[in-house]
Please model this.
Amino acid sequence: MGIQIETIFSSEERIPQPFRIQEPIEQREYLINGELKIWQGSLNPVLSPIYLRKGDESSQKILGRTPLLTAKESLEALDAAVNAYNLGNGLWPTMSVVDRIEHVEDFLKSMRNRRNEVVTLLMWEIGKSLKDSEREFDRTCDYIVETIKAYKELDRNSAKLVEEQGFMAQIRRVPLGVSLCMGPYNYPLNETFTTLIPALIMGNTVVFKPAKYGVLLIRPLLESFQKSFPPGVINIIYGRGRETVGALMESGKIDVFAFIGTNKGANDLKRLHPKPHRLKAILGLDAKNPAIVLPDADLDNAVNECIAGTLSFNGQRCTALKILFVHDTIVEEFINRFNALVSKLKPGMPWDDGVALTPLPEPGKVGYLKELVEDARAHGATVVNENGAYHEYTFFFPAVLYPVNEKMRVYSEEQFGPVIPIVPFSDDTEPIKYVVNSNFGQQVSIFGTDSKRVARIMDAFVNQVGRINVNAQSQRGPDTFPFNGRKDSAEGTLSIADALRVFSIRTLVATKSTESNKQIISTIIRNRESAFLSTDYIF
Model:
């Protein structure tokens, strides 16, 4: 065995000083109605996926504890959001676009001052490398900046009156109501804020519950939220989902449900709402994105893209490539090249220079991945890479499985981790049938140089998935591109511009184009008598 546990987990003394957490963080604060309340009840322990060695023994790092709020506190947060929205007549939903933007800009300024704290907690809580943690923070800030720009552009396009068939009108986007925002543990900052910020800036009020893992990293931002937004506009709760979120949905007072997680979790929560027809859902869910490597593919590019697609952040991305279909005429060469690159990936701690493989944050994940590997072996697959499936505590070295077939669980289950199933194929209809019959429909990647063949396969997928990547890994960015999915993979479209639209609805003021009506509208606009009816141009 080429990998030893001593090369992966470190002792306290080897941790760089800036990233050390000496004492557990005891968080008792939560935010309701503009007040940072102090919880006196039970706390939930937060365990890091990182084990620390001391002599011959290793122990899991205890990062701290967070509040185990109950249904009572979650409903208090909901009441605060409902009152702040006030049936659309509250301060926040009726505030001018310029003023709402100023509040979001104030938050962004304050958030940037907490970068080091958030980045450190990202590494400790979910095992994300320093480079990727910094990238997540910076990308989130960039997302907020671009959202503000897009909102200004959206408002500029609405700052006019239109005349049609004897009517004149102004059409603007307005908020939907009270939003419940929940993000995933793999991108607990970025993916969460891609729904949270658009919901807020469009005038909705929000109850926000941080991800199950990656929860402490929101703590440095609590004060920023408190000081940047009016009371009740943003409320942040903690605790077990079945006690807190269940009560929120059962109340029937949630108008918008923004959730990134599993389709089972989304379905279970949506069913609790007593008026499902009034619930707007924006969901980012499961995916089983395949890559299809054709015989004429540029193998250097295909292998590099598939390495990044399958193993960036240990494959813990909904947009990761989860299964590779490789033409049987090139599959051996592909595997040899792929394995050569896998062997060069550096395992270690998140703060180690050049680290590519880190511990997995989800409890029980290593056991689940072992089950997938053993099931694949039982049905004829082999782990074909050196050190494949090596594991210790929360660390799991990538396992490349070949040949994979439909009898194996990993063929259809989303592994969400560093297990790479490779399926040989001889006829293009095989991977096409896989995508068509799949319950998921997020993305697919096609690698090839024969334009006619690529086009034929591409056209087979345009009504199956949300994005088709040609000679590139599946991914979310750029954030200006639509991000969606079909079947069980998503509901609603997210991107910078699309997110503003899904958290709002178009409303118009219209009147017949008579001289007297034109005079009334002109007076309202000239004297700034309406917050809605305006031709102001925001720079």
Observations:
- The two ends are 61 Å apart (CA to CA).
- The chain has a mean pLDDT of 95.
- The CA atoms of residues 20 and 452 lie 55 Å apart.
